[in-house]
Design a protein that fits this description.
6-stranded parallel β-sheet
């Protein structure tokens, strides 16, 4: 296609608390099974903050950041069924589409899975990310989904990661409660952490029929949005137990049926175990890039009959399903900033510090 310049603009990792917007080599000549995508929108994810803070170590300097993107197929390699010009969204990890895990709804554990935006500093293995004007996509037919005409690029960004992840978290909890003989409308759910994934978990729980959703966060602007999405907002105060007491004041008084942890912090997971009733479910999708261990012992789980479900969201396996729900919910409400990619350094710093009013950031690589 038209633009064949040898370089492009991208956001690259330099060191903890430092990313740079700069010229990098543009990916060209897709190999077998690969596609080059012209990125039209890309996102800043909470998972990007783990290496940015230095909590997750091993990311190679000058790796192109980001694993959320949607765009237009620019070129395809041999054997690829996708066609240049098609509008597509990527899941945040690659998926071959035909291994046992991909065939059984667990694309996040694909035999060949790789996370976009992660190249290991020790062995240089990995792939560049999508906070760029172009990105090389391995296993293109398995990783990319053609966007329906009514789905925008920015919605495609959300579907490929945070909306699928929020939905996965909520669905995991409700499916584990299937033996409780309760309708979703009778259940109470607490969402611990109201960042972008938490907000998507609130939307998803409501879409799945839950009427009583508690939203817990320390950032008032996030709680305000959670309330607008139909949740009951709770600020935990100085002690996490404050939130436990508040959520225990449900109509049952026995605790919540399900607690959804989307932060990736020890205290958040600990609070979930405090909030959940005996026989309830803790569903965790937060990336726990810390060494604090697990906040509850097997004996404590046993004594409370708790079901714990966790893991990386199989986004590619869920993308079609969640796309079909977009006519029932305006997921773009979680987007607070639509900015040029050149403002990445500023937005990383604001998002990391939980600046008021900063929820989901969508970058335009061409602005």
């Amino acid at each position: 296609m038209a633009d064949q310049a040898p370089t492009m603009k991208a956001v690259v990792f330099k060191k903890p608390y430092s990313v740079a917007y700069q010229e990098v080599p543009r990916p060209t000549e897709p190999g077998e099974g690969e596609a080059i995508v012209r990125v039209m929108a890309c996102g800043l994810c909470g998972s990007d903050i783990h290496p940015y803070r230095g909590a997750e170590k091993g990311l190679q300097r000058d790796t192109v950041c980001g694993h959320e993107f949607a765009g237009i197929v620019e070129e395809v390699g041999q054997g690829v069924q996708l066609k240049p010009g098609q509008r597509v969204a990527a899941s945040f990890t690659t998926a071959c589409g035909h291994c046992w895990f991909c065939s059984h709804g667990l694309s996040s554990r694909c035999d060949t899975v790789q996370l976009f935006g992660w190249i290991n500093e020790e062995n240089s293995c990995g792939i560049h990310g999508g906070q760029a004007q172009f990105v090389r996509v391995p296993y293109a037919d398995g990783t990319l989904m053609v966007l329906p005409d009514h789905v925008s690029f920015e919605e495609g960004v959300l579907v490929g990661d945070i909306f699928s992840t929020g939905y996965f978290c909520a669905k995991n909890a409700l499916s584990a409660l299937s033996d409780a003989k309760m309708a979703p409308s009778e259940m109470t759910v607490a969402v611990v952490g109201c960042g972008p994934v938490g907000l998507c978990a609130i939307i998803s729980a409501r879409l799945l029929g839950v009427e009583t959703v508690y939203a817990i966060d320390r950032v008032q602007s996030r709680l305000n949005l959670a309330k607008n999405l139909g949740a009951i907002a709770i600020a935990p105060g100085d002690s996490p137990i404050d939130a436990a007491c508040a959520a225990s004041a449900t109509r049952s008084g026995r605790g919540v049926d399900a607690a959804l942890e989307v932060v990736g912090a020890y205290d958040a997971l600990d609070l979930c175990f405090r909030l959940v009733r005996p026989g309830g479910v803790v569903s965790s999708v937060g990336v726990h890039a810390h060494d604090k261990g697990f906040p509850i012992s097997p004996e404590q789980c046993y004594d409370k009959n708790i079901t714990f479900r966790s893991g990386r969201c199989p986004a590619r396996s869920l993308m079609s399903e969640v796309c079909s729900m977009l006519d029932k919910a305006d997921i773009s409400r979680v987007i607070s900033h639509r900015v040029p990619l050149s403002s990445a350094s500023e937005m990383y710093a604001k998002f990391e510090s939980q600046a008021p009013g900063v929820f989901k950031v969508i970058f335009d690589p061409w602005a």
